[in-house]
Design a protein that fits this description.
binds 6-phosphogluconic acid, alpha/beta
Length: 233
């Protein structure tokens, strides 16, 4: 049973203030407890609206490592790059940002390269913050030939390469993504979604769980911790 608590806001600004505060608390608590923090942040358009609320906080940024939950296999200066938006926000604050996408033409090999980079980091992440597409993908776990591998990868496997099918309209490129196991290993998982359409998709996915027709339902079906979902119209 997926235990989800919905936090509703009247605007994206209100949501951004709340999520920025929550993530700041997670980072500060992690550094207090373990001397460092590793957080995994989403791609897409909502994250970059929230990131400034986070980096404006007086936090020990030099002890913080930030990774994307997933990335498109495009050059880092490509506007479709997830790590590009993360680096723009967090490098000036003094955080360490680790890209996981490499320009290896074979997306499966790119997945191996992403996994190798993540194997060098102290695990698990203190936070995995997920977004969701209208098609119910999360991170870059999509319907398609690589969905089962992303869901069933062993705990030791932190990232894989994926080829979405059908391709998403906004970024029709192969990707690398955290696996379900690495997402669910996080000390805290939070989700941000906007709009009624995505809310309906996510509510149905949570209700369906393992039998969900969309990726996020399959990912969350094995979660063993409560999840905060932050939503605004
Ligand atoms: C990706 C993203 C994806 C994103 C959601 C939410 O590379 O496709 O990581 O999982 O987080 O699609 O995107 P929005 O914030 O734009 O709704």
């Amino acid at each position: 049973m997926i235990e989800a608590e919905w936090w509703e806001y009247d605007s994206l600004e209100e949501l951004a203030d709340a999520v920025g505060g929550d993530v700041g608390f997670i980072v500060e608590s992690a550094v207090d407890a373990r001397g460092a923090s590793l957080i995994a942040l989403p791609g897409g358009t909502t994250g970059p609206v929230i990131f400034p609320r986070l980096v404006s906080q007086q936090l020990p940024w030099k002890k913080v490592t930030v990774i994307p939950t997933d990335d498109r296999l495009v050059p880092m200066d490509d506007e479709r790059s997830n790590v590009r938006a993360i680096a723009k926000a967090f490098l000036p604050a003094g955080a360490r940002v680790i890209p996981i996408a490499t320009e290896i033409p074979d997306y499966k090999l790119a997945g191996n390269s992403a996994d190798a980079r993540l194997q060098d980091l102290p695990w698990p992440p203190d936070l995995v913050w997920l977004g969701m597409g209208k098609d119910g993908h999360t991170a870059s776990i999509f319907a398609g030939p690589d969905l089962q591998e992303a869901l069933d990868a062993p705990k030791a496997r932190r990232a894989i390469g994926v080829m979405p099918e059908p391709m998403p309209v906004d970024a029709p490129v192969p990707r690398v993504t955290l696996t379900r196991a690495s997402i669910l290993s996080a000390r805290t998982i939070l989700i941000t979604v906007t709009g009624d359409e995505k809310r309906a998709v996510l509510e149905q996915a949570i209700a369906d769980g393992q039998s969900s027709k969309v990726a996020i339902g399959r990912v969350l079906s094995e979660v063993d911790q409560p999840i905060d979902i932050h939503w605004c119209p």
